[in-house]
Structure formats: structure tokens, C-alpha cells
Amino acid sequence: MKLAPHLYRLGNDIVASYLIDLPEGITLVDAGLPGHWNDLQRTLAELGRPLSDIRGLVLTHGDSDHIGFAERLRSEAGVPVFIHSSDAHRVRTGEKPKTPMGPARIGPMLGFLAYGVRKNALRTRHVSEVVEVEDGQVLDLPGSPVVIAMPGHSPGSIAVHVPGTDAVFVGDALTTRHVLTGRVGAQPAPFTDEPERALASLDRLAAVSASWVLPGHGAPWKGSPADIAAAVRAV
Predict the structure, then answer these.
(1) What is the pLDDT of residues 40-52, one digit of tens each?
(2) Cβ atoms < 10 Å from Cβ of 196
(3) Which of 40, 11, 39, 16 minimizes the C-alpha distance to 172?
């Protein structure tokens, strides 16, 4: 799905990742579920770009529904996988604290689980080798992504700001579609390690200048980061 010049979404409102297509190469943000490998292949074919044009994959955090095809891309194509150092252990092992599930409705929850099964979520592979990044780092990748620490959902959650596409990718720092209730609109994401810390991190997002805010779950937000941060806090 093309969102804007150079900017594409893989997946859908249930689980999404993103592709930035620039003349110097491709940067991916998040890797969805393992079955999104086919979505990646289709998008590359539509763009007329080979897999070898992917220069790097940046993970917003280490949860399984964001790392789907990351290890396959790394092992088969040699693409480096970048993640904040505080989530490096999580992405390598899958170890994470248990968090309260919170509100849920049976229909949306079963839909999320069924989609995961269709996209091979049960076969997610952990990422054995990663490049650790830190807050404020500008990555040497197409679009020069800027790492913005957004701890809360996980210790190493980040937003990824790519000024050339006028977009900021936020992972699960917030959501625009709650995967367990089906509720749409800007709101806190479920399965968050430290909810209050996640809300505090929205101050960092609000300071970013961009026209697109792109979450890992839910519809893209066409508007300012400050506006969506305020909307999440108002819930």
C-alpha cells in the first residue's frame, strides 16, 4: 500500500510494517509477522527493486509481532537489523515481563489471533544478530533515520523519524486500532510494560516535526505528532 512518495505500508491495520524506497536504497521499519515476507516480495516486485536493495531493517522494539521476517531477511540476504540496546535481549530471546491483558472483546481478539495464525506468527524466529542503537543516533541508511527513545511499551521502544518522507514510525508507543477491543482512534497500546512511562514518552514524540505518524497497529495518522500525542492522552 503506497501512502506517499517513497513510503509504503506492508500488512494492514491489524499488523503493519513499513518500506521507505529511495534512489540510494530501501530502509524497512519493523518486520510484522513471518508471513509478511510475501507482502515484502510483492511490494519489491511492484517497485522493480531486488531484495539486495534493502540496506537495513530498523525495529521499533523487540516484540514478536514486529520482528516477523527479520531473521530471515538477515540470514538470507545479509540485511543488518537495528534495535535499541535496551531491547536487544528481548529480540534475541523473546523474554519479556508478563503484563495485564486489559480490556478485550472476543471478536477483535479472535480476529487478531486468527490473522496471526494465517501469517505464521507461531513460527516467528528470534533475531540472532543485531546492531544496537541509542537515542539520538542518525543511522547510515536511506533516509537517514533518527532514533528517538520512547521507553514504556518496552525498555527499548523507539520512534524512527525519517525527515525525507515527513514521517515518524512509532511501533507500539501508541496505537490507532486496539488489537484486543477493535476500538479505532489514537489510544495507548495494549501489552505495555510501563503504561505511565509510555505516556510520559509522548512528550518526545510531540516535539517531532512530521505529517505522518505510522503505528504498528491501526490506520496511518495523517497529522502532527503533537496532535496524536494529545489525542492519546485524552483517552
Answers:
(1) 999 999 999 999 9
(2) 9
(3) 16
